[in-house]
From TrEMBL:
It comes from Thiorhodovibrio winogradskyi. The gene is steT. Gene3D superfamilies: Amino acid/polyamine transporter I. The chain crosses the membrane at residues 40-63, 84-113, 125-143, 150-176, 196-217, 229-251, 279-304, 325-342, 348-371, 383-407, 413-430. It is a multi-pass membrane protein. This is Serine/threonine exchanger SteT. It comes from the Bacteria. It is found in: Membrane.
Length: 447
């Protein structure tokens, strides 16, 4: 860790935007339209998901202003509830919170590249491209913090420009599909259905990252002021872009052609630009996912580093190179990402991430009520707008989504719960090591 925070609000906001605009928005629509037929209901998914993410960002902005330290939910839940709750949240972040989204982004990037290049999407090219991409980004993140920040701003800016061009040319050039975004009575039952709730998991996965800046809070200049700006500004911008981008997908490409497909961006690009230009645009989409891989490669190891400062079993991961980068934590995440790339399917990773991470975020948002009741001191720079309604909206919709997900996708959800519970074994092991060390110290003092 550097002795002095080195990045400003622009780099922090870039981390938020890059974490959000990634795999989900270019891939998840294909799974949504299998069960949801109304275009308006599909857009409602993205609007509701964006509002939920914004409510979460509003809450996290206050919690981050109160507790400005890297580590995300690990640090906040340890302070709000008990160290064991924070430990479990940190374990989730280490196990799946960042490694799995990096793997999913790398798989999606490889899927786009292999599709447009005419390669076998289920062959060795698929995994090789994904692993090489993650390896290259991991190497860049061994450089000084300012270099990492500039790289993040550059790749994120290029991706946002790409999305804006896609939206602009999509509405201007595409032949409209025979669909309507107008309201009809059939929309309400679809929105209240279990299929909508499960699809909201994919949408919330696409919005995941709205809290990304909280994981690198210690590296942000004046975090009490800049952290809320990065979280709220980045989330609001992405919500607008997501809604327009999915409207373009539905407007330009047949729903039947996108249903069940991962490369919905590629399908839409072919209909908007034609075969040749569509291939070029799809290549740009693939390379645009580098910013997502980069943002999560930046944030994830900081959780492990912060835990290494607090727990003996993770002590090695607090070590930093001469640039202040936690290199062992970075390399550990790289190994986990490669394992997931080689062993997991894209859809299974999405469900697994969605359920497991939502548990941590749900508890964190509840924590705002506890913190306000316990601590009468208010942050100087920011208080949650719309309190208590904003955290309540987030909790109601996220809780509803979790219940339906557990019902509709029990295997992935149970695996997620098992991951959480397995963290208790590590916590018990750490407590055992601490007890042994305490006894040895006591015995040495006695002698």
């Amino acid at each position: 860790m550097p002795s002095k925070p080195a990045i400003g609000v622009s780099a922090a906001a870039a981390v938020v935007v890059a974490n959000m605009i990634g795999t989900g928005v270019f891939t998840s629509l294909g799974y949504q339209v299998i069960d949801i037929q109304s275009p308006l209901a599909v857009l409602a998914l993205w609007i509701i998901g964006g509002l939920v993410a914004l409510c979460g960002a509003l809450v996290y902005a206050e919690l981050g202003a109160r507790m400005p330290r890297s580590g995300g939910e690990y640090h906040m839940l340890s302070r709000i509830y008990h160290p064991v709750i924070g430990f479990l949240a940190g374990f989730i972040s280490i196990a799946v919170g960042f490694a799995a989204p990096v793997a999913a982004a790398a798989i999606a990037m490889s899927s786009y590249l292999t599709s447009v290049l005419g390669l076998n999407t289920h062959g060795p090219w698929m995994t090789s491209i994904a692993v090489i991409a993650v390896m290259a980004v991991t190497f860049i993140h061994l450089f000084p913090l300012r270099t990492i920040g500039l790289f993040q701003i550059l790749v994120t800016t290029l991706k946002v420009i790409l999305v804006l061009l896609f939206i602009l040319f999509g509405f201007a050039l595409a032949t409209p599909q025979p669909i309507s975004f107008a309201y009809s009575p059939a929309v309400v039952p679809e929105i209240l259905s279990s299929e909508f709730a499960v699809s909201l998991v994919y949408v919330m996965y696409a919005y995941s990252g709205w809290n990304a800046a909280i994981y690198i809070a210690s590296e942000i200049h004046e975090p009490r002021r800049n952290l809320p700006i990065a979280l709220i500004g980045g989330t609001s911008a992405v919500m607008l872009l997501y809604t327009l981008l999915n409207a373009v997908f539905l407007y330009s490409a047949p729903i039947s052609e996108m249903a069940g497909q991962t490369e919905v961006g590629y399908i839409a690009a072919r209909h908007i630009f034609g075969e040749t230009a569509g291939v070029a645009m799809s290549l740009l989409i693939a390379f645009g996912l580098i910013s997502t891989i980069s943002a999560m490669t930046w944030a994830g190891p900081r959780v492990l580093q912060t835990m290494g400062e607090d727990y003996a079993i993770f002590a090695a991961f607090q070590r930093a190179n001469r640039n202040g980068v936690p290199y062992l934590a970075l390399l550990f995440q790289f190994v986990v990402v490669c394992y997931l790339i080689l062993s997991s399917s894209f859809e299974a990773i999405l469900i697994y991430i969605g359920f497991t991470l939502s548990l941590s975020v749900f508890l964190t948002v509840i924590g705002l009520f506890i913190v306000r009741a316990r601590d009468q001191q208010r942050p100087q720079h920011y208080l949650t707008w719309g309190y208590p309604w904003t955290p309540l909206i987030f909790l109601i919709i996220t809780g509803w989504m979790l219940v339906f997900l557990l019902w509709e996708k029990p295997i992935e959800s149970i695996v997620g719960l098992a991951t959480v519970l397995s963290g208790l074994l590590l916590y018990a092991w750490n407590s055992h090591l601490n007890s042994r060390m305490t006894r040895r110290v006591a015995a040495a003092l006695t002698d």
